[in-house]
Amino acid sequence: MGILEVKNVGKRFGGLQALGDVNLSVAENSVHAIIGPNGAGKSTLLNCLVGKLIPDTGSVMFDGQSVLGRTPYEINQMGISRVFQTPEIFADLTVMENMMIPCFAKRDGAFKLNGIKSVESEAEIRDRAEAMMEDMNLAEKRHMHAASMSRGDKRRLEIAMCLAQEPRLLLLDEPTAGMARADTNNTIDLLKEIKQKRDITIVIIEHDMHVVFSLAERITVLAQGTPLVEDVPSKIKGHPKVREAYLGETAAA
Amino acid sequence: MLGLNKKDATLLGVVAVLVIFAPFILNPFPADSAMAQFNAGYPDLMQRFVIFGIFAVGFNLLFGLTGYLSFGHAAFLGVGSYSAVWMFKLLSMNVIPAILLSMVIAGLFALLIGFISLRRTGIYFSILTLAFAEMSFRLAYSVLTPITNGETGLQLTLEDPRILGQTATESGGIPVTNLFGLEMRSTEVLNLGGWSFQFNNGYYMAGALLLVAFYISIRIFRSPFGMMLRAVKSNQQRMNYTGLNTKPYTLAAFVISGMYAGLAGGLMASMDPLAGAERMQWTASGEVVLMTILGGAGTLIGPVLGAGFIKYFENIFSKINEAVLHSWFHALPDGLENAIVWVFEHFVGSGWHLTLGLLFMLVVTFLPGGLVEGGQRLGRLFGRKKDAEEKTATQSTPAE
């Protein structure tokens, strides 16, 4: 039984069957990649996992509990964090404040009317944020406005914010989309380091095969809303069905 | 000090000094001089400065922090005023229960309107609040006449029951609002040379409450709650995916800000115990938006400055009339004098809104951060000048 169990999930938008009948089992503490050509339903699937979309059929279980019908913040409080394709950070706030918010969310839950204390006096939260920034090489930028950082640093900050919540499952939606090769490699190293240091399950949706094959322990190939194959990377590489769906090559070629 | 850092404590101190010495600061010209009409140190106007200051500080807690632009805040002000007048009619002429009730009722009203309006963001939220405020105005104006006394406005009468206190004074008049016997309307006048400074009880009570309101606003700005509100403004999506429920945060901000408006409304009624529906009209809601943006939305001191600025110009400019203009320009040849007066008279008196519009356009275009940004730029300019002067001073050492 995996930490994330997706069973018979289907989702239809008007006349378009975005997801047909998706079954997916992600083992705890593994790195699982979901790949597939454009329009395969990768993002729809991800949105069904975090509560942004509710699937028409099927079930999504996280750690034995259903996530269906819960709002994104409730699902996050269950232990699922999401990194977006374009970094979603608090652009108007400083890096330090960006880091403190998930620490507050972890400690105080979805809502707390904490208007008496000052942010400065919250030593425990500041320490946690500082430690996380130190860990993620963001410490020198702590007073910078998040909006003025480079794309790579924004990505790093977003991942750091997710990790500050100590999630059990980290979902990454094309984390290297639109990045230069050097930044992509940095992100790969960062994710590898994260995996080494912590007990965390990572599900990654990615276009870039270089990223997928450097990180993933298992790969699910999605095409037209249904999983084609699920296997270890070495088997996926040469799989005729994958080549056909993904690269548009015929099996004979 | 008081749980504030040095910078904030200084700011609070500056505001406190301004409030305490306002009767002097706002009265720079001798009473019988030609410039006396620019004096603003009389009780009625000073009360308005601080009351609208409170209103704008509260509005800024919502708009400045969360970015939700409410176009219906005057509704809470009006509700506050009505509640206070009812308290004067039924319970006692002491202002404390009246102000407390205004805050509670305005808070409950804000809870209701906020709960519905906050389902939408951006322009839809603004339109919803505007619609609610207009509905409240119409209700107060006609439908709810038994409670609001319709277009006449709610006033004290000689038949009010007043449980704790007398229905009428011994001399047969309506009792006046007071704070444990201290009459709100009474004013001490200090004549010093040609100057006459006025110290009004009501002003100082409202001023004290402005300081409390300002202090609470600083604490909220610096608290984790305030940081969450700024996060709401910055990125709601990230909030949701960080396990935070944005709805109670925005609703709490809306209610707190509505209670500030209720306090302002209650104070207005405490200074002058009547309440009319026009206090809820959309122009009144728009005014507090102007004050906050003009002063600097999202800054601590901005709303107070904006409120003072608008109320000062409203009162001073609207007092200038054609005769005053003629007296200013009488030295000029007749034709020229008439031409100049003809141009200027459209910008003063009842046309002062034209001036306000121009000022607002200039500020928003050239100082998007409001008066506070203007102040910062001036500060930087002088800072640089000082630096430059020091440099030239060191450079100009003669090489003889």
Can you write the helix and strand succession of chain A as a string?
EEEHEEHEHHHEHEHEEHH
- Tally of strands of chain A: 10
Helix content class of chain A: 25-40%
The low-confidence runs of chain B, each spanning 5 or more residues with pLDDT under 50, are 392-400
Major sheet: arrangement of strands of chain B: 1-6
Given as residue ranges, the uncertain stretches of chain A (5+ residues, pLDDT < 50) are none
CATH uppermost class of the largest domain in chain B: Mainly Alpha
Please, what is the average pLDDT of chain B? 89
Integer count of domains of chain A: 2
Q: Which strands sit side by side, in order, in the main sheet of chain A?
A: 6-7-8-3-9-10
Helix content of chain B: 55-70%
User: How would you classify the quaternary structure?
Assistant: heterodimer
Give me the number of helical elements of chain B. Answer: 16
Describe the structure.
- The complex is a heterodimer of chains A (253) and B (400).
- Chain A is α/β, with parallel strands linked by helices and 253 residues long.
- Chain A has two domains: 4-79 and 167-247, Rossmann fold; 91-152, no CATH class.
- Chain A contains nine helices and ten strands.
- In chain A, a hairpin with a 2-residue loop joins strand 9 and strand 10 (226-231).
- In chain A, helix 3 crosses helix 4 (123-135) and helix 4 crosses helix 5.
- The longest helix of chain A is centred in the last third of the chain and has 17 residues, at 181-197.
- Chain B has helices at 6-25, 43-66, 74-90, 95-117, 122-143, 145-148, 201-222, 224-234, 236-240, 246-271, 282-295, 302-319, 322-329, 334-344, 352-366, 370-395, and strands spanning 154-155, 178-179, 182-183, 187-192, 195-200, 274-275.
- Chain B has 400 residues and is mainly α.
- Chain B has a two-stranded antiparallel sheet with strand order 1-6.
- The chains are: A alpha/beta (253), B mainly alpha (400).
- Chains A and B meet through helix 2 and helix 3 of A and helix 7, helix 8, helix 9 and helix 10 of B.
